[in-house]
Structure formats: structure tokens, C-alpha cells
Design goal:
eight-stranded mixed β-sheet, two-stranded parallel sheet, globular, alpha/beta, Rossmann fold
């Protein structure tokens, strides 16, 4: 990371598969943190399916030169960067191979002048492929939030994401079950359209204490489509946002592997050039 940036907390938002509302949850978590007074940023690491500019209604492009890139600010001051902030046309496809995609994520982290940021949310691509692995290995993640939906199949895939986080020594902050239920506007009855929830079982199995269940609400999809995510009521994610601010990963290093002989005690490390942010 460049000398003009100081990001105190980094939270990855992941999903085992697409279509569960990961980007909308990322956006709403950022909005929630910003409303709580934290200086917030969003790094859109979903390079081939960038959604962050659309959710925030951003049409301006990122400015920069050969040395640095300036993030794009939302209406409420959230700093963002996305590949769609660099493309001339938002609908241009990104047809790049894995190493190039991963390099863009590293460039977003190292070359963007973020300034002072209390918490950065990283909207990661679905699954456990190259880009997700780059984020786990190259960014100093304090933890991840896993987004899911109630289907039995998705629950199985969630466990894959939890196990990947454990393999990479990154704590799971919590689980967000999106589209968990629907409340009928006529009778007020709750309907489990996608089946019964299994989120409590998964959380208990892996010792995850923070969970959030978000209802299926057409106004959320409409707001994201219209670039109005900052107008939504995000109280359903308030506890999760606070859990993100408390997350701490003692194993995180700033884009560098631990030096040989690292004990994890930075007060006595003495290794020159160590990228640790503990």
C-alpha cells in the first residue's frame, strides 16, 4: 500500500456462488458503517461482474496518472474503486485471464490513494477461484462476511467458503442470509420462499456468533438498480457492521508473506521490510 493510504480494517464480503446478493450486502454494509461515523471505502474485486458503481449511482470515472489512482466518491463520501470506474463504457466485457484479473485487484490496493480509512469492504467474486485467492493472500483481511440464501444447495456451498477462510487463517465475522423470507404486504404473514433457513446450524457448527437474516424486499433491488443504495434502511445489518469493526486478524500481512522466522510478535520482530499490519 502506498504512503498516502492508511486502511485500518479490511473486511472481505464473499459468497460460495453468485446470485445471492453479495454486492448489495457489501454496499449496505458500507452505508451502515458510514452512517455510524466511520470513514468507509469499497474495493470492488469482482472484476468480471462489477456492481458497486451501479448500486451507488456512480457515472464519473476514476482519475489518475501513471503513479496513482483516485477513488470515486459516493454522495455520502464513501470511497470506491471498480473496474467499471476505469472502462470507457460500463457494458464493455472484461475478457481477461486469471493472472491479469488478480493483478488488477493488487493494483486497486496498492495504487489507489485511499487516504485515511477506518474500514474497507472488499466485494469479492463468487466462489474460490484466482481472484478470491488473491484477496485472501494479498490483502490484510481482518475477517470475512459470508453472504448466502436459504436453499439447501447454497448452505452446502457456504461451508466451502467457511473452510477456505479457515485454510487461509482469516476469521469469519458472520453470516448474512439474504432473501431469507418474504413478508406478505396484504396479510403480514412470513413466507420462506426459498425453503427453511439452515444458517443457525452452519453458524453453530463453525462457532460463528454473528448472523443476520434479511427479508426479500423489492425496494432493495430497485434501489440498487437505480443507484440509490444510500437511501435504504440498513438497520438489519447494524449488528453485523459493528462486528466487522471489532474483527481482528493477528495473522494479517500487507500483501506480503510472513518473513522467515516470523513469530507473530511484531514488537520483537526486527525484520526489515516486513509488511505486517498487526
Amino acid at each position: 500500500m502506498n504512503s498516502q493510504s492508511n486502511v485500518k480494517k479490511v473486511i472481505g464480503v464473499v459468497s460460495g456462488k453468485g446470485g445471492v446478493g453479495k454486492s448489495s450486502v457489501t454496499s449496505m454494509l458500507a452505508v451502515t458503517a458510514q452512517r455510524k461515523g466511520y470513514k468507509t471505502a469499497v474495493l470492488d474485486a469482482d472484476i468480471t461482474g462489477p456492481s458497486i458503481p451501479k448500486a451507488f449511482g456512480l457515472t464519473q470515472k476514476a482519475l489518475g496518472n501513471e503513479e496513482a489512482i483516485l477513488p470515486v466518491l459516493t454522495n455520502t463520501g464513501i470511497k470506491t474503486i471498480s473496474v467499471n470506474s476505469l472502462l470507457e463504457d460500463d457494458t464493455d466485457p472484461v475478457v481477461w485471464r486469471g493472472p491479469v484479473l488478480s493483478g488488477v485487484v493488487e493494483q486497486f490496493w496498492n495504487d489507489v490513494i485511499w487516504g485515511d480509512i477506518d474500514v474497507m469492504f472488499v466485494d469479492m467474486p463468487p466462489g474460490t477461484g484466482d481472484v478470491a485467492l488473491t484477496v485472501f493472500q494479498s490483502l490484510p483481511l481482518d475477517g470475512i462476511v459470508i453472504v448466502t440464501s436459504p436453499q439447501e444447495l447454497v448452505s452446502m456451498i457456504v461451508e466451502k467458503a467457511v473452510k477456505m477462510a479457515n485454510m487461509m487463517n482469516v476469521p469469519v465475522v458472520g453470516l448474512v442470509e439474504n432473501m431469507s423470507y418474504f413478508v406478505c404486504p396484504d396479510c403480514g404473514k412470513q413466507h420462506n420462499i426459498f425453503g427453511e433457513s439452515h444458517i443457525e446450524e452452519i453458524a453453530a457448527k463453525y462457532g460463528i456468533t454473528d448472523i443476520a437474516k434479511l427479508p426479500m424486499e423489492p425496494k432493495v433491488a430497485a434501489a440498487c438498480d437505480q443507484g440509490l443504495v444510500e437511501t435504504l434502511d440498513t438497520t438489519g445489518l447494524l449488528q453485523m457492521a459493528e462486528a466487522c469493526m471489532k474483527a481482528d486478524n493477528p495473522n494479517k500481512h500487507d500483501g506480503m508473506p510472513k518473513p522467515k522466522g516470523c513469530t507473530g510478535s511484531c514488537s520483537s520482530c526486527g525484520v526489515e521490510g516486513c509488511g505486517s499490519r498487526q
